[in-house]
Amino acid sequence: MLPTGLAQAVVVLVCAVWAANFVAPFFVPGYVSDPQLNLVFMSIVGGALALSRSRRRDGDQ
After folding, report:
1. What is the pTM of this model?
2. By CB neighbour count within 10 A (0-12 exposed, 13-18 middle, 19+ buried), where does 8 fall?
3. What tens digit of pLDDT does each residue of 19-55 get?
């Protein structure tokens, strides 16, 4: 299992890449993001957040 700190770092990193992917079409002409990437980003962030919250609820910080 991922330690809580590592899970939070993964969330921050994936959110940063997700945000960059979202704004890239504004700065890079012709860039088209694959819509399925949003599903991948949501799955990673959701899973890591659920993992860190369940551990926090169980008292493992």
Report:
1. 0.72
2. middle
3. 999 999 999 999 988 889 989 999 988 888 887 777 6
Domain locations in the chain? 4-58
CB atoms within 10 A of CB 52: 21
Cα distances (angstroms) measured from residue 30 to each of 18, 25, 33, 55: 18, 7, 10, 43
List, in order, residues 6 or more apart from 23 with CB less than 8 Å away.
Answer: none
Residue 35 Cα distances to 18, 31, 38, 39, 50, angstroms: 12, 12, 6, 7, 23
Tokens 């890239």 -> residue: 24
- Asked if 45 contacts 14 with a C-beta cutoff of 8 angstroms, the reply is yes
Q: Hey, what amino acid is at 24?
A: A
